């Protein structure tokens, strides 16, 4: 069996699929849109002769997974992953186009999810199709189009639980990264601190224990932790610095300004880099809460709402090498290695399975979630071709 050249993807069909996906407003949790998007992906897979498996993850939201056998003997399994949900279009008056109209103007495809990440989903399907049309290949591809990436990543968690990542040797997460190949991603912790003291009349505060000054001390303490974390391990070459950002502070009521409250809650969005150990950080925070609480006669309870560790694989990993080589061949220049500022489904896959994941896909890194979100039309087939070639290099192994 010889490695045959891969035919270029059907440019028109891949762009049409991206447009059809944008026209389905699969806003996370809204009106079953995610299921409708999953059904379109499943229909497309069936039309390619593949057997999609559609799983309802929660009402109106579904995962679609399929395996494309190479038919060329034993070999590794490469996963290509994308999510089907989009964030809200927000204020429609901020858009100059219909957010779900999939309008093409001056070479750009506009719409919510154009970059994040319906172009990526379309590209991974047509890339897999092109590789298959090029003849048998060793191993297989597994394609995963999942729900709820923008929320709690229920789709990725479910895909892992359903065994869809079993035996997979590497995963390309097709999120928009502006031409960068990203073997690293920031980690995230969503934390909630509940402070409980004792309520009192505002005229007799000495009879109560207000958690408000303690919450203020806690915020200052978090700033100290941030300074320490930024000093050690120091800035990451592509991900920059870790941050602990208080995002919500609730205490008392503006309708009851003569009441010294008994309770307060603080939410903190923590973003970490490789070298920050989440469990050690959490132990440290719990320690500080205990000390601060005891000193002020207020209890502070820390709840971890979500724990997504930072991801990093080496530049010498076969998946990174395959993507770099494919990108250089198809784009005529080498791609920069970058880092993902947020978390992706790849974070869950890496956390729960240890599979090497790399994020690489069509669209700008910073355009996601904005009004007038777009992707360059020309990029969609180009990424699909690159996925096909990278898959070929990865699955055949590093022969010339
Ligand atoms: Zn995304």
Describe what you observe in this structure.
This protein has 400 residues and is of the alpha+beta class. It has two domains: 11-185 and 310-396, 3-Layer(aba) Sandwich (Aminopeptidase); 187-308, Alpha-Beta Plaits, CATH 3.30.70.360. Helix content is 34%, strand content 25%. It contains nine helices and 18 strands. The protein has helices at residues 11-22, 33-47, 114-133, 154-161, 212-231, 278-296, 318-331, 345-353, 379-396, and strands spanning 53-58, 61-69, 77-83, 104-105, 108-110, 140-146, 168-173, 181-185, 187-196, 200-201, 243-251, 259-260, 263-272, 299-308, 311-312, 337-340, 357-359, 374-376. The strands form five sheets. Strands 1-2-6-3-7-17 form a six-stranded mixed β-sheet, with helices on both faces. Strands 11-13-9-14 form a four-stranded antiparallel β-sheet. Helix 1 (11-22) crosses helix 9. The two termini are 15 Å apart. The structure holds zinc ion. Zinc ion binds at residues 83, 116-117, 149, 175. The site of zinc ion has 5 residues, from helix 3.
């Amino acid at each position: 069996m010889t490695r045959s050249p891969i035919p270029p993807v059907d440019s028109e069909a891949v762009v049409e699929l991206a447009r059809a996906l944008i026209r389905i407003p699969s806003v996370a949790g809204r009106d079953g849109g995610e299921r409708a998007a999953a059904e379109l992906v499943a229909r497309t897979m069936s039309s390619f002769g593949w057997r999609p498996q559609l799983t309802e993850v929660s009402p109106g939201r579904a995962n679609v997974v399929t395996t494309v056998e190479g038919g060329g003997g034993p070999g590794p399994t490469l996963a290509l992953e994308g999510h089907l949900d989009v964030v809200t279009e927000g204020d429609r008056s901020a858009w100059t186009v219909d957010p779900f109209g999939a309008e093409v103007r001056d070479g750009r495809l506009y719409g919510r999810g154009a970059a994040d990440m319906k172009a990526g989903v379309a590209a991974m399907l047509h890339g897999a199709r092109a590789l298959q049309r090029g003849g048998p290949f060793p191993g297989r591809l597994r394609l995963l189009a999942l729900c709820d990436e923008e929320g709690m990543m229920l789709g990725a968690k479910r895909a892992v639980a359903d065994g869809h990542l079993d035996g997979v040797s590497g995963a390309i997460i097709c999120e928009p990264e502006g031409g960068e190949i990203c073997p690293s991603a920031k980690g995230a912790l969503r934390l909630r601190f509940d402070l409980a003291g004792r309520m009192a009349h505002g005229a007799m505060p000495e009879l109560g224990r207000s958690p408000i000054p303690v919450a203020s001390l806690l915020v200052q303490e978090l700033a100290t932790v941030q300074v320490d974390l930024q000093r050690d391990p120091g800035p990451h070459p592509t991900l920059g610095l870790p941050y602990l950002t208080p995002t919500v502070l609730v205490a008392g009521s503006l309708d009851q300004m003569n009441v010294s409250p008994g309770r307060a809650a603080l939410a903190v969005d923590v973003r970490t880099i490789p070298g920050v150990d989440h469990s050690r950080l959490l132990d440290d925070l719990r320690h500080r809460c205990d000390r601060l609480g005891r000193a002020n006669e207020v209890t502070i309870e820390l709840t971890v709402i979500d724990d997504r560790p930072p991801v990093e694989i080496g530049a010498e990993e076969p998946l990174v090498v395959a993507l770099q080589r494919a990108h250089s061949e198809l784009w005529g220049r080498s791609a920069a290695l970058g880092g993902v500022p947020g978390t992706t489904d790849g974070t869950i896959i890496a956390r729960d399975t240890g599979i090497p994941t790399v994020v690489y896909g069509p669209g700008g890194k910073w355009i996601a979630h904005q009004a007038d979100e777009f992707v360059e039309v020309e990029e969609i087939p180009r990424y699909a071709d690159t996925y096909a070639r990278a898959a070929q290099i990865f699955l055949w192994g590093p022969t010339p």
